[in-house]
Write a structure and sequence with these properties.
The chain has 2 domains: 9-257, Type I PLP-dependent aspartate aminotransferase-like (Major domain) (Aspartate Aminotransferase, domain 2); 259-392, Aspartate Aminotransferase, domain 1, CATH 3.90.1150.10. It is 40% helix and 15% strand. The protein has 15 helices and 12 strands. The strands form 2 sheets. Strands 1-7-6-5-4-2-3 form a 7-stranded mixed beta sheet, with helices on both faces. The protein has a 5-stranded mixed beta sheet with strand order 8-9-12-11-10. β2, α5 (114-123) and β3 form a beta-alpha-beta unit. The chain is globular, with a radius of gyration of 21 Å. The termini are far apart. It catalyses: O-succinyl-L-homoserine + hydrogen sulfide = L-homocysteine + succinate.
C-alpha cells in the first residue's frame, strides 16, 4: 500500500483519495447515483445509524466521487477532513450554521467578497447574530471588537479586490486566547500558495468555482479543518443539503491535478502585469501583494509561496476612466468570475460589491475608479496589448 502521508504536494494533488474499484480504472470514476443498495435490513440500519459519513447512504451527503475530492483538498490544505458544498457561499453558510446561534457575534474583515458582506450583515442579522466589520490588517481592531459572545473570526487574505493581508499567525493567536474559531477564505491563494491551517487557523473555506476548477466550468465550494469541526459542518450539509454533485466533484479533481502549475503561472503573469501597470498613464495605484510598493509585501513573502493571480488598480479618472479601460478590451473577458485560465476584468463597485452600501464600499477602499483583473494564462504581451487600448483610446 502506498504511504500517502509521506507524499509531496504534487503527488497528493494527483492521487490522494482514489481507491480503485474492481474495474481497475486509472482515472477517478463518477458515481452518478442518488442512493445505494444494502446487503440486508440490518446492514441498512447500521449504515443509517452511523453519523460520521463513512458509509454511502444517499448522495446528498455521501458520494464516492465527492469523497475523493474532499480527501484530496484536505490533504493539500493539511487538514484532517473536508466537506464539499454546492458553492463557495454555501461553504461559508454551512460554517455559520454549524457554529453560530442566536445571540452570538462574529468579527469579520471589512475587505471581503460582496456576497460575504451580505451574508453576515443582512442574512445572519435576521437570526440574531451580530457581525462587527474591522480593518483586515489591524489586529488591535479585531481584539477591540471581540467580546464574550464572539464565536467566529472570518478573514479573507489576500482580500477581494484590494489584495490586503492579515498576519495569520498573530490573528490565530488572538483567536485562541479568546476561545474563538478563526475561519479563513483561501480562495485567492489556494493551498498551492498558502496554508492557513499551518499558520494557526481553525477552518479554511473555498469557492472551488475559482482556481480549484481553473477553467470556469463548475460552481462548488468546500470547508476543511479538524475532524471535530468538520463533523459539525457535515451535519449541516447532511440535513440542509447544500451539497456538491458527483460530476462537479470530478471536474474539480481534474483541476486539482494541475493546481500548483497553474498557480505558479498565474502568479508570474500577475506580477509582471502589475509592474507594467504601475508605469501606465492615469493609473493612480496598483494593488498586488507581490509588488515591492505594497505595504504588506514583507508579510506576503512570509506566509505565501507566491502572490496569486488577482490584482486591482485605480484609475485617476474615476468610473469613467475605469469603464473606458474595461470597454476598450477586445480579448479579456468582462466578467465578475475569477480563477479562470482566461483573464477576466471587472468593475467591483458596480459588480461584485454593487449590493454593498456605498459608505461600506468606500470604507473598504473600493472606489469608482477601481478595476480588478484576474490574470489568466495567456501570453503576457497579448494581455498588455489588450489593456493598452484603454489608454490609446
Amino acid at each position: 500500500m502506498n504511504d500517502s502521508a509521506s507524499w509531496g504536494a504534487a503527488t497528493r494533488a494527483l492521487r490522494t483519495g482514489h481507491q480503485r474499484t474492481e474495474q481497475r480504472e486509472h482515472a477517478e470514476p463518477i458515481f452518478t447515483t442518488s442512493s445505494y443498495v444494502f446487503d440486508s435490513a440490518a446492514h441498512a440500519a447500521e449504515c443509517f445509524a452511523n453519523e460520521t459519513g463513512e458509509h454511502n447512504i444517499y448522495s446528498r451527503f455521501t458520494n464516492p466521487t465527492v469523497s475523493i475530492f474532499e480527501q484530496r483538498l484536505a490533504a493539500l490544505e493539511g487538514a484532517e477532513r473536508g466537506v464539499a458544498t454546492s458553492s463557495g457561499m454555501a461553504a461559508i453558510l454551512s460554517v455559520c450554521l454549524a457554529f453560530l446561534e442566536q445571540g452570538d457575534e462574529v468579527v469579520c474583515s471589512r475587505s471581503v467578497f460582496g456576497s460575504t458582506v451580505g451574508l453576515f450583515s443582512r442574512l445572519m442579522s435576521r437570526y440574531g447574530i451580530t457581525t462587527h466589520f474591522v480593518e483586515l490588517n489591524q489586529i488591535s481592531a479585531w481584539e477591540a471588537a471581540c467580546n464574550a459572545r464572539t464565536k467566529l473570526f472570518f478573514a479573507e487574505t489576500p482580500s477581494n479586490p484590494l489584495c490586503e493581508l492579515v498576519d495569520l499567525s498573530a490573528l490565530s493567536q488572538l483567536a485562541r486566547s479568546r476561545g474563538v474559531k478563526l475561519v479563513v477564505d483561501n480562495c485567492f491563494c489556494t493551498p498551492a500558495l498558502q496554508q492557513p491551517l499551518a499558520l494557526g487557523a481553525d477552518i479554511v473555506v473555498h469557492s472551488a468555482t475559482k482556481y480549484l476548477d481553473g477553467q470556469g466550468r463548475m460552481v462548488g465550494g468546500a470547508v476543511v479543518g479538524s475532524q471535530e469541526d468538520m463533523a459539525a459542518v457535515f451535519g449541516v450539509v447532511r440535513t440542509a443539503g447544500p451539497c456538491m454533485s458527483p460530476f462537479n466533484a470530478w471536474v474539480f479533481l481534474k483541476g486539482l491535478e494541475t493546481l500548483a502549475l497553474r498557480m505558479k503561472a498565474h502568479s508570474e503573469n500577475a506580477l509582471n502585469l502589475a509592474l507594467w501597470l504601475e508605469q501606465q498613464p492615469g493609473v493612480a495605484r496598483v494593488h498586488y501583494a507581490g509588488l515591492p510598493s505594497h505595504p504588506q509585501h514583507a508579510l506576503a513573502q512570509q506566509q505565501m509561496r507566491a502572490f496569486g493571480g488577482v490584482l486591482s488598480f485605480e484609475m485617476a479618472g474615476g468610473r469613467e476612466a475605469a469603464w473606458r479601460v474595461i470597454d476598450a478590451t477586445q480579448m479579456l473577458s468582462i466578467t465578475a468570475n475569477l480563477g479562470d485560465a482566461k483573464t477576466t476584468i471587472t468593475h467591483p463597485a458596480t459588480t461584485t460589491h454593487a449590493r454593498v452600501a456605498p459608505e461600506a464600499r468606500l470604507a473598504a477602499g473600493i472606489t469608482d475608479g477601481l478595476v480588478r483583473i484576474a490574470v489568466g494564462l495567456e501570453d503576457l504581451a497579448d494581455l498588455k496589448a489588450d489593456l493598452s487600448r484603454g489608454w490609446i483610446a
